[in-house]
Each structure stands twice: as C-alpha cells, then as structure tokens.
C-alpha cells in the first residue's frame, strides 16, 4: 500500500508540474486577449469538461492524466486564420507571442522558487558520501564493472593510498586515466586480492572507474525568511546552469544514462516520496526547474524552438515562412516522441 501511495504521489507531482507549465501559457494568452479554446488535463477520452459562462475555454480532464495541454486559437498551422480576428495567436504582436510562449517555462521556475522557499524554511535535504567508501551501484561497461566490482563492496585503497570516502577515491583516480591502477576492495567484511583496473577517461579528462558511492541523507538547519527567499530566487538559475553543464558533458562524452523519461522520473519521485515530505517536495522543485530549462532549449516543437522563430521575426521584422516553420516543428516533435519512446523502454526494461 505504501509503494502504491508513493507512485500515486509521483504521478500527482509530475502532473501538477505540467499543469503549472500549461497554466503559465494560458494566463499569459488570456492576459493578451488571445482566445484559448481548450485547457486539458491529460490526453485521451474526456472524462469531465466544463466551460464557464462567457468564457471561450473548455476545461477538461481526460483519461490519461499524466500530461496537459492548452489549445490557443490560431497556433495550429492547419487552422484557417482570419486576419481580422484580434483574438488569434498569430494576429497578436511579437512581444505578446514571445511572452505567451515564455510564460510556460517561467511558471515552472516560479513554482520551483515558491516550493523551495518553503523547504528552506524547514531544512534543505543534503546528500553526503558515506564513510567508508561503499559502492552503491556500478555503471555498465565501466572499468569497475569489467573488474567485477559489486554493489556493497567497500573500496579501502587506491593507487597505494588509503581511501576513506568518495573524495579520496576521486583524488586517487582522477589523474590515472588510461593507466593500470591497483585497488583494494572489501566484500562482506573480507579483503579481496588487489584488483587492477584501468580508469576510463571522462569528457573533461578525469580518470573514472564508474562507481557511485552510497550516500547519507542529512538536512540543513532551517533558514531565516530573508535567506530562504534569496536562495529560492537563485536556486532555479544555479541549477539550470548545472544542468546545461551536464548536458554539454553528455553530448561530448556520448553518455545518455542520466536521461529519464516519464517512467524514470516517476520512479525517482516515488523513491523520494518514500523518504518523506521534504524530500518529495525537493525532487518536485528539481524536476520543475528541469522542465522549465528543457523547454527553453532551442529544439523544434519545444517552447525554445518557437522562441527562436519569434526572435527571428523580432530581429528581421518579417515572419518566417509558415509552412517551413510548421515542418520544422513537426519533425522536431516526431524526433522528441521517438526519443521519449526509447527512453521509456529503457526506464522500464533497462
């Protein structure tokens, strides 16, 4: 029952973040007088719908409640656009359209800051490497995997020096890329014969053996209101920079293991929900920030891709070819759906 509740909380949390994102688009569109035809929570057959009196928008809940979408009149390239209809998206000024598109990611950043503020007042979760250096997991295809290192092993020596924690293991390994290095490991309290491994070279040149250390969870002392507010504003920006650095390393190194689809994110949120409410809210903050940052990437079909075309219009004072833009977004959408399917299969059976 507890595990089921954790997964229900995971679905609820991720769904709320998508609703917040689409809510940002909706509020901005309505503020600029655009006609929003539909605000749907979920996809598939409609379970419930309601259209307030005098409103152009039908609010509905669909059978698959994991995602959400907002249908703004005139955004679909297949629609017939009346040039004299002032409520259509393409008939609004470029700044109104830019703000409407940007409002989705901004809503995720704002939600992340608000929730993070509450967490900071209670005590932010902190993960610290445990001592001794206990292996939590081993990356497939890594030097450690090839050498037979297992989860639960304790690495006590590396390159002739003692290892007490993760920092000391990193220090002993970082300059050994491509060089055979001796490690001493304890398994179930028994010291094994020395193991010779050759650390792989990471994208930044560091030597790595591909193990993840067991972490302990502690909590920072509660912050004052002022300090919590300041950190809440800074957190989405700082975390986005870290994500971009990680994305750069992922591209240069070709390691896509950290990419997670809806199933992978659901498992992660469920795991944190099991730890407690603070950990659950913290991972929601992290995913909300990631969702905002990801949608701002200049990839066709994402908000960032649309902003690229709007930026072109702003600079050149001429609109891009509608057919070309529609084709680019369609290709981008198909690509993203393909990646989503592959990542989802890996999350389930990987």
Overview of the structural elements:
The protein has helices at 2-31, 94-122, 143-146, 166-173, 225-253, 262-275, 277-295, 303-316, 322-349, and strands at 36-50, 58-72, 125-129, 135-138, 154-158, 161-162, 181-187, 190-191, 195-197, 200-201, 207-208, 211-213, 215-219. It is of the alpha+beta class and 350 residues long. The chain folds into two domains: 2-122 and 282-349, no CATH class; 129-217, PDZ domain (Pdz3 Domain), CATH 2.30.42.10.
Strand-helix topology:
Layout lengths: L1 H30 L4 E15 L7 E15 L21 H29 L2 E5 L5 E4 L4 H4 L7 E5 L2 E2 L3 H8 L7 E7 L2 E2 L3 E3 L2 E2 L5 E2 L2 E3 L1 E5 L5 H29 L8 H14 L1 H19 L7 H14 L5 H28 L1
Antiparallel strand pairs: 1-2, 3-13, 4-12, 5-6, 5-7, 7-8, 7-9, 10-11
Helix pairs in contact: 1-2, 1-6, 1-7, 2-5, 2-7, 2-8, 5-7, 6-7
